[in-house]
Amino acid sequence: MNSVIPIMPVLSESEQQALFAPVEVADGLPGRVYSNPEYWALERERLFKEDWFAIGCASDVPAVGDVMPVGIAGWELVLVRGLDDRVRVFHNICRHRGTKLVTKPDNLRMIQCGWHCWTYDLEGRLQRMPILNGPNTSGHDCFERESLGLVEARSGVWHDTVFVNLDGKARSFEAFTASLARLFEPYHLEGYDLTHPARHDEVVLDINWKLYHEGGLEGYHIPFVHPALELPDRYHIDNDPEAFTSLTGSLIKYKRLGAWVGLPDDTFDMNPAAAAAVSEGRRIPYTICFVTPTVIFAAWPEAIITTLLRPISPTRTGVRRNMYFIGDSAISAEAAPARQKYVDIWLGITGEDADYSTGVQRLSAQREEIGMQTRFSPYWEEAVKLFQQGVARRAYGASAA
């Protein structure tokens, strides 16, 4: 990635030195990177277009013929489940005059443009160009159907999450996901039901996408903003500079999901790592992984939580979640109240965080104007600093040198 055309730095030398300094004396990213269109354009090119990023879930299109449009970071895409049961991603643009093809989730036998009725099959192949050369005609000798299919984006699915690489030049999907697979291996993700997640609708926040990551990458705010949550011990940090920053912690006061609504403690199965910790009287492990730029995976004792971000503009971001459970309780009617309670808890956490992150967004331009730098807690916020360094290095050409 970025090996042919050098990235010119757009942070000053002093800003780079301050960001890459030891955490106790480092300064954070300047306020302009959270709203300035120049930085948004760089992120679109270097973090989105040139690498893998998440856009949705295979479970968003569960049946053959299901389609779901996704507008993300200025691109119009569409998820399609084909006749072969494979999920593909196409640019949501007709090859005739550039019309947006799919405007809402639907189940279709064919994808048809509403303007001139050019028609494509579920694998993106062009099938019909009605009356192209006059009444009662179909096609023209100069229009080769084979070369006018929908433009497919390179894609892959990992733990139900659909990733795309828009320029087609990133490392293999297997290489991209290998470090994720190693990180979550103790939790045995293969045991979760990926086809029936509990979920909540998208909430649009008036924040830059980076602020959502930064808010979750530290536990410093938990006792002040989320008093119902357990204050963690110091996290163990895993950092892949080209993909993610993750936090692994442990819980001692974990409340089983069933107990939230008066159901038995064993309403939901625990993952193997959590179950082993309970049986041995140890603290229960969990891992939250922030995959730049648009997805967060969290392995909690009884659920995997996938948070999908949909950057809309430099100052607006959509947020939605899927929650995956193990075994029969993932779909049982008896466990439905507990699944809904879990959805409600996480929606509440989003709202609590939004009160502060939207304020940070509003003030980002002002702190740029007055030259005010931000700082990091040496104990709690090393991961925030690593995330900011990763964005600065990959998108803005910054370096520690």
From the structure provided, what is the oligomeric state, counting identical versus distinct chains? single chain
Strand % is 15-25%
Q: Would you identify the regions where 5 or more consecutive residues have pLDDT less than 50?
A: 1-5
Radius of gyration: 23 Å
**Which geometry do the CA atoms define?**
globular
Task: Give helix % range.
Answer: 25-40%
- The count of helical stretches stands at 8
Structural class: alpha+beta
C-alpha termini separation: 20 Å
| Element pattern in H and E | HHEEEEEEEEEEHEHHEEHEEEEHH
Enumerate the strands of the largest sheet in spatial order, edge to edge or round the barrel. Answer: 1-10-9-4-3-2-5
Mean pLDDT: 94
Total beta-strand segments: 17
Mind summarizing the main beta sheet? 7 strands, antiparallel
Describe the model:
- Helices cover 25% and strands 24% of the residues.
- It has helices at residues 13-19, 37-49, 173-184, 209-216, 222-225, 272-279, 336-369, 382-396, and strands at 53-57, 66-72, 75-81, 87-91, 106-107, 111-112, 119-120, 126-128, 152-158, 161-165, 198-205, 236-240, 244-251, 284-291, 295-299, 304-313, 316-324.
- The strands form three sheets. It has a seven-stranded antiparallel sheet with strand order 1-10-9-4-3-2-5.
- Strand 9 (152-158) and strand 10 form a beta hairpin.
- Helix 4 runs antiparallel to helix 8 (382-396).
- The longest helix has 34 residues, at 336-369.
- The two termini are 20 Å apart.
- The relative contact order is 0.17.
